[in-house]
Amino acid sequence: MRRYKILLVLSFSLFIMNMAPQNSDAFSNQVITRGAFGDDVIELQSRLQYIGYYNGTIDGKFGYGTYWALRNFQDQYGLPVDGIAGATTKNKLASVSQYDKAYVMDQINKGNKFTHYGNQDLNKQSSKGTGTGTNMQVPSNFTEQDLKLIANAVYGEARGEPYDGQVAVAAVILNRLDSPDFPNTISGIIFQPGAFTAVSDGQIWLEPNEQAKEAVLDAMNGWDPSENALYYFNPKTATSEWIWTRKQIKQIGEHIFCI
Amino acid sequence: MKKIIFLLSYAVVACLIFSVASNRENQELKYLLQGQYTGKMADASTQLNELQKAVQQSLLFNDPTAFHDSLQDVWRLSSDIRYSIADLPLEREFTTEWMNYLGRLGNSAKMTMTSQESADKWHDNVNQVANNLSNFSSDWQIATAHFLQADDNYKQWLEEQTSNAETSGFKNLSKSVKTYAESDFPLTASEADHEKKKELKEINDKVITKEEAIARFYEMFPELEDATLSVNQSKKGAPYAFYHIAFHKGERTGYADVTLKGGHLLSYLVERPFEEKTLSAEKLKKLADQRLKELGYKDVKETDARENHNVWHITYARVDEKTNAKVYADGVQVKIAKDTGEVVGLNGVEYIQKEKLEPQLMKKIDWEKFFTNKAKVVNEDLAYVENKDFVERLCYELTVRIDSSKIPHTYKILVDTETGEVIKNEKLS
User: Which of A71, B153, B272, B352 pairs with A22 at a CA distance of 20 to 30 A?
Assistant: First the structure.
């Protein structure tokens, strides 16, 4: 009788384990939704591309291209069509596709242009690209090129400043973009003769660090610690008399921000 | 001894050769730059003459095509001069004023072309614009004469022009252009309202003291109790007065700016190290919503969310009670840490002074006729957005997909509910 009880408990446990939703071995436990970023999205895009649903760039950014591809996949495989990669969708996808993580990550790290289709030789799917991107998701009204350029300016102008001071410098560049008094492109603003010291002394060409890029990302997302400033200057080093005639708003670190 | 003399002579000759070569290189670079600046200046002068003519010619025609062409010339040339000016090392005040004037002239021409402004308004205004441009053109020729003469004093002249010195020809020009801009293109009522919102002109709450600002800070961010604070009031030139509260607690440093009137939160930002672990997106969004409600943002709706290495940036817009439409101009932005769900940034400046929304007709639009057969409307909502005249308009907010290529493209298109005008057309990535 005791044996039967043990057998019954074991069988029931096995049944429960079988019935419970299983996480895919491949993906992490996270539910992947639009706006997500990272390795799970890289895998999602690669697997969708492997079976021909996704034709865009494998960049780890879950945008609309990935969203529509995922919905088509869910529709074809009789899954709830919501454009969200939960456990069921990930398991199904993992069972019908393959993912060569080493190949995909190697191409991304080298900044190559590549695809990951299942029925083609991998060696023929890769070609030299333009190098690595910023690995950051910028708001849709900006590009990665914008982020790089502003981060160069922020690093060249304010790398010794506190974080909010760096965000404020990036915000000044973006405030100029909205102002009719300045050029209407980011490159036009940064390279306007005499506008930024970092351009004049060549420091703009230094490789910016992650902090400068994060600061630009915050400014692009709306933060403006300068409170609408269009100019800033270091009172210890400023040589222009004109800059002292501007209306001052606040000081952050060594910089006075003004309009 | 002979050896030392030989080595010294050798070193002197080498230095001389190096110095001559460097000097020649610098001279070449100087000429190259001078050539480029002179070229840009000559372009700007030629374009200014053409602009003058185009403005005057726009007075000639009643014929719609000819009138339209002359307006197009004004728009194109004003834009071209802006580009030329932006590349020149001129006095900064002059550059900003002149670019502003050209932008307003070009906008006015474009709005007349697209019938957003009447032809009569253009004709009424253009005589004065033509006169002002003519006066400006004469002053411009005097101020820029040196630019076209590659004499030895070029460098000195350039320094004078860019140093805001009283001797600079541009100093007077910037004063006159400022006057022209105020007289030729005064701010419209909507532009003035737009400025008022940006400068929080309509907040009439009670002024709070520094102590009250600190109390407000702790009330909003109880987790920062016992933080070391440094509180400063904004400087006199700030468009709105505020307290800047810089804080430091353990690994956290950051700031919060609150308005002097009413203690409204302008923005808040924390810098701290992040751990590797990640909460789910769903959980983080719930935490952000909850935190917003605690801070008093109870009528907002998520409009966008983007994940990055350590944080999610989530944007919200206020929802109008009457129409249930999102008001993008009354937005709030949240930055939430992926490791713990702590709100490490909040930007509420746009939410403080709410937009005034006017009642608006809602006409039914047949999207099948409005779009080509390649476009498919996949979602329809309502939202208020600003049009080119800075007026908030109620719009159908459409998500539209085009499947014409291997990769589908998605657009957010905002169509005025009354006029059917496309106010915004944004490609979504």
Answer: A71
According to the model, what pLDDT value does residue A14 have? 47
- The minimal CB distance from A218 to the residues B82, B89, B335 is found for B335
Class of domain B205-273: alpha beta
Identify the sign of the CA torsion A145, A146, A150, A151. negative
**Count of A-B CB contacts under 8 Å:** 163
Q: Which residue in B237, B269, B308 is closest to A136 by CB distance?
A: B308
If we measure between CA atoms, which residue out of A115, A149, A119, A148 comes closest to residue A129? Answer: A115
pLDDT at B194 over 60: yes
A33 at interface of B, judged by CB pairs closer than 8 A:
yes
Angstroms from B164 CA to nearest CA on chain A: 6
Q: Phi and psi (nearest 5°) for A147? A: -60, -45
Mean pLDDT of chain B: 86
pLDDT in tens, A27-62: 888 889 999 999 999 999 999 999 999 998 898 999
A153 shares its domain with A240: yes
Distance CA B278, CA B290 (A): 19
- Short-list A146, A223, A174, CA closest to B270: A223
Say whether B236 and A180 touch across the interface (CB within 8 A).
Answer: no
Residues A150 and A234 in one domain: yes
CATH number of B367-428: 3.10.450.40
The CATH number of the domain where A244 resides is what?
1.10.10.2520
